[in-house]
Design a protein that fits this description.
single chain; alpha+beta; Alpha-Beta Plaits; Malonyl-Coenzyme A Acyl Carrier Protein, domain 2; eleven-stranded mixed beta sheet
Length: 736
């Protein structure tokens, strides 16, 4: 399968939300797969607790149903540095739009503080009911100095700019208001700004929260609301929709950039459009078949894909007697310009599950459809048994899908999404599965998995959320998970990390809270802690040093292979076979590596490659210190020597040292002053490693005699793995 690109494709790389019956996108997907009705139905006591008037409760036309979200007043104010009074006066629609924007950016793998590109914000919210509830108990605020703060915390004008301010985003920041189609129009505008290079990443979505949540509505025949609290799109018994609360956010990026940056792509937006019905309809609030037909046609013209290739359409699908037939007529009119096939394309509506989320409705349908493409499942539309008699599905390209089923894998998965607003602003978006190469799997033994938060409670919540994510995504690449958690999250003071070998190992460690595998820091962390690279001298080498890293880490292998290749030209032998010998004769291999002419180039190459690998991972030293051969590594890494010069100097130095008489070096656990009192005249103090640790050098027999003396006097010492008595008078013949 392949797809031609137009150059206008936009990738959906992140998403987040709060939905009826679902605290996040993962729970939404699970609920939709199960075909759940997520509308809440209230008792009289529920409604009394919400101060609903008694006369409403006894009214037969008062329908006690709504789609509500959990923890509507919950908000991590500390994360965004709000004062308590600020939060108290801030509309929950704006609070949750901000919080979900943060979450969607994290889902995309980007920390706002670390992202180098320009980020735009596009979105809208519903009618503010919070301010009315708030003023009931705080009436004096209208005339007080805090009235201004109340205004900017509740007016629609300040939605996206607040997100831009709190997340330090410097791209376009645009509030969108087109009623029910707000969030899909916002998504279209975000796409256009990406295509025009006004931004490199875009946040788009909508938020609607009507308070009090536990409240119903008055049914009126012929209007858009359901008589019984059930939404039945396209069904013969459809009588209207049900209102609901929700928030939905997507993060968008130009497709070519997303592929280059190896982003996880939910779906690709191939084309999008928006328009208005104008006056060609029966009334201002009525849908218009011509406007809908035209917006669908325009989106497909931009997408440049055949309508016959579409496998699913997420409809506006309000379940009204007037709106449903008009929507199918518009879709059929648009599709008949391209295909005469019948009933090949499934349709559905998330409103059958959640109700109508007003300004968040369009993006919720988009999230549902993108997840459908990503997970290779077409979701069921519920509450459907027989078609509305005014809809001729048999002679249309469409059928209502009522069962969870797989897509046809012989074709590229394509779908589209509609959203139509009261007042006539229509939007349509065409989606396609991402055509990206599979990640290459690296067989590293351990991956560092990092978490951080501002408080212990938030850190625990992060861990719990990640456990739930991992359970639902067991096959996700652990390397990608580790990379995103390291580079795509803002760092906070409370931190912990885990070294995991696999997804199952990670999940077990987290669920069982295995303390010796979880490393925590509860204190303050310097934003840029100074890092020192220390490079050791001879004696630290061993056969197969860093062999696992060499076989498993491409970056380390690249740098070490570079050293091997350059040294082969300089010395005319293969150092790789010395460090990683193809033999079972370990004693012989150890002696070969112990030869100075091999030891010094080997240590330099390993230490240089380790340092370059750490630097490539973003771990950069503020200073460096080297011991003997390690001094040359520090000089090379700091830029004093280039690699070619360093390797030539090291090779010459090692070959010269190899020619002098052999000797030994002895590490002794004594201070300099204590050692000098007993040091024989034939030995030299070579190194003072610390206040209580020194090294002496000399001829082999003299070192052995002194070692025996130290043992007799219970003084700890260790012979180093060197072939010569470095840093002693025995090196002086080189000067001749």
């Amino acid at each position: 399968m392949s797809s031609e690109t137009t150059g206008f494709e936009i990738a959906i790389v992140g998403m987040s939300g709060r939905f009826p019956g679902a605290k996040n996108v993962r729970e939404l997907w699970e609920n939709l797969c199960l075909g759940k009705n997520l509308i809440s139905y209230f008792t009289d006591n529920d409604l009394k607790d919400s101060s609903i008037p008694e006369e409403f409760l006894s009214d037969s036309n008062y329908v006690k149903a709504r789609g509500i979200i959990d923890n509507v007043d919950g908000f991590d104010a500390n994360l965004f540095s709000f004062y308590p009074k600020e939060i108290e006066m801030l509309d929950p629609q704006q609070r949750l739009f901000l919080e979900c924007s943060w979450e969607a950016m994290e889902d995309a793998g980007y920390a706002p503080d670390n992202y180098k590109g320009v980020v735009g914000v596009f979105g809208g919210i519903g009618m503010n009911t919070y301010i009315m509830e708030y003023l009931k108990v705080n009436p004096d605020l209208v005339t007080s100095a805090e009235g201004y703060q109340l205004s900017i915390g509740n007016d629609k004008d300040f939605l996206t700019t607040r997100v831009s301010y709190k997340l330090n985003l410097k791209g376009p920041s645009l509030d969108v208001q087109t009623a029910c189609s707000t969030s899909l129009v916002a998504t279209h505008l975000a796409c256009m700004n990406l295509i025009n290079y006004q931004c490199d990443l875009a946040i788009a979505g909508g938020s609607t929260i009507v308070l009090p949540q536990k409240s119903g509505y008055h049914y009126q025949e012929g209007m858009i609301l359901s008589p019984d609290g059930v939404c039945r799109p396209f069904d013969k018994d459809a009588g209207g929709t049900v209102s609901g609360n929700g928030v939905g956010i997507v993060v968008l990026k130009r497709l070519e950039d997303a592929i280059e940056d190896r982003d996880d792509i939910y779906a690709v937006i191939k084309g999008s459009a928006f328009n208005n019905d104008g006056a060609v309809k029966v009334g201002y609030t009525a849908p218009g078949v011509n406007g809908q037909t035209e917006v669908i046609t325009s989106a497909f013209e931009m997408a440049d894909v055949p309508m016959s290739s579409i496998g699913y359409i997420e409809t506006h699908g309000t379940g009204t007697a007037l709106g449903d037939p008009i929507e199918i007529d518009a879709l059929t009119n648009a599709f008949r310009h391209n295909t005469n096939e019948n009933q090949f394309c499934a349709i559905g509506s998330v409103k059958s599950n959640l109700g109508h989320l007003d300004t968040a409705a369009g993006v919720t349908g988009l999230i549902k459809t993108a997840l459908s493409i990503y997970n290779n499942r077409i979701l069921p539309s519920i509450n459907y048994s027989e078609p509305n008699p005014q809809i001729d599905f048999v002679n249309s390209p469409f059928y209502v899908n009522t069962q969870l089923k797989k897509w046809d894998n012989s074709k590229i998965r394509r779908a589209s999404v509609s959203s139509f607003g009261i007042g006539g602003t229509n939007a349509h978006i065409v989606l396609e599965q991402a055509q990206v190469k599979e990640d290459e799997t690296l067989s590293r033994n351990y991956r560092p998995i990092l978490f951080s938060a501002k408080s212990k409670k938030s850190l625990e919540e992060n861990r719990t959320n990640f456990i739930n994510y991992l359970k639902g995504n067991k096959n996700n690449n652990l390397d990608n998970i580790a990379y995103t958690l390291q580079t795509g999250r803002k760092e906070f003071e409370k931190r912990e990390f885990i070294l995991a070998t696999s997804n199952s190992d990670l999940l077990e460690t987290l669920e069982k809270n295995i303390s010796n595998k979880i490393f925590r820091n509860d204190g303050m962390i310097s934003k840029n802690p100074p890092i020192v690279f220390m490079f050791s001298g001879q004696g630290s080498q061993y056969i197969n040093m860093c062999k696992d890293l060499y076989s498993q880490n491409k970056i380390f292998k690249f740098y070490l292979d570079e050293c091997f290749a350059k040294l082969t030209k300089i010395n005319n032998f293969n150092l790789q076979e010395v460090i990683f010998p193809f033999t079972d004769n370990l004693d012989g291999s150890k002696e070969k590596l112990k030869r100075t002419e091999n030891t010094q180039p080997a240590l330099f190459s390993i230490e240089y490659s380790l340092a370059k690998t750490l630097i490539d991972y973003g771990i950069k030293p503020s200073s460096m210190v080297g011991h003997s051969i390690g001094e040359f590594v520090a000089a090379c890494i700091s830029g004093v020597l280039d690699l070619d010069s360093a390797l030539r100097i090291i090779s010459l130095r090692a070959n010269l040292m190899q020619k002098v008489k052999k000797g030994l070096m002895l590490s002794i656990k004594l201070s300099e002053s204590e050692l000098l009192k007993i040091l024989p005249n034939k030995l030299d103090l070579a190194v003072k490693n610390s206040q209580e640790l020194c090294v002496v050098s000399g001829e082999i027999d003299e070192i052995r005699k002194f070692e025996e003396y130290l043992k007799e006097n219970n003084i700890e010492s260790t012979v180093l793995h060197t072939s010569h008595a470095f840093h002693s008078r025995m090196m002086e013949p080189i000067l001749e």
